[in-house]
Amino acid sequence: MKRLKLFFLTVMALSLGFISCDKEEDTKLINELYFQIQNAEFVSDGFPAASSSVDAPDISSIYGNSNVLAGGSNPISVSTTDAVKSILVGVQGQKGYYKIAASNYKSTNYLYIIYLIINQDLQFENFTIVIAVLDNAGLVSTHETINVSRVEAGTGKLQVSCSWDKANDVDLHLVEPGGEEIYYGNSYSENGGDLDVDSNAGCSIDNINNENITYSETDIVESGDYIVRVDLYSSCYVTANTNYVVTVRYNGNLITPKSGTNPYYGSFTSEQADYGGEGDGYTVMTFNIGSSKNAVEKTELVDGFKFIYPNNDEKRPKNISPNK
To answer: pTM for the full model?
Structure first.
């Protein structure tokens, strides 16, 4: 009888443990589970319901990548028919959302580009991004959605990622301190740096629209200066501008660059396509990895992002605006 009682107590304890874990997961908000947005107010509440009024604002179109990488990014374009006060971004069925002031943008045609910085520990294989706009009268538009899938990619000790918003061939380049360049023509360096995602290569469109270079925990991340470049290899008959985002993470955190910004937001015109190879592309940032003997890693929280200073760099990260 005692054994039976003990068995039931054990089962109950295990069940409570599982329930506790589930509840803990349920209490996390989207900024902890999915993504962050710079220069946005985070609201730890449910996503606002659409207003029933005929005067509610309208979203004429939205566009964003349907594929993301853990530790990467996703540029999302939102077009409205009239001026709005804020753009709201959340995840369907999840608590918490971002409110981005429309005044942050120098938009004259009611086009807003929102940059999602995807968490490096993203666990979900699929989720749905929800977008709405809010006008000055407090009315909320109908909700628009983008279904997103997570593409397998390495994160590791050092991760350099680029995402863009058109079905064309953008190339990511990383030059190591020793001079070896990782790009589509040299996808694996002697140190172990690996271009493990190479999207839309040669206009063979896969619609992943992401590239990723990663160093595992056992690879060599040598000390010295690194150069990150981005190149529009081919527009693949796309005539519209291509918006892109580059992020660099070291030991899981955004690294403070020596030059440029991190994340870096940029755009290409179709005329800038150059079929470039080694040495080509636009330098978006340089960063330094200090000697492991001398480096003192320091982190700082800015706009909800953890930045790392791996080489005693006391320069505070810039509060970057998503405007160009």
So the answer is: 0.84
Q: Decide: 145 and 63 in contact? Cβ < 8 Å.
A: no
Cα–Cα dist 173/307, whole Å: 22
Mean pLDDT on 176-193: 98
Beta bridge partners of 86: 101, 134
* Residue whose C-alpha is closest to residue 233's, from 267, 197, 276, 195: 276
What token pair was written down for 53? 């009024």
Mean pLDDT of 54-58: 96
Categorize the per-residue pLDDT at 324 as very low, low, confident or very high, splitting at 50, 70 and 90. very low
Cα Rg of the chain (Å, integer):
22
3-state DSSP call for residue 32?
helix
User: Is residue 246 within 8 Å of 161, Cβ to Cβ?
Assistant: yes
Q: How many C-beta neighbours within 10 Å does residue 59 have? A: 19
Report the C-alpha gap between 124 and 33 in whole angstroms: 9
* Token reading at 199: 């999207």
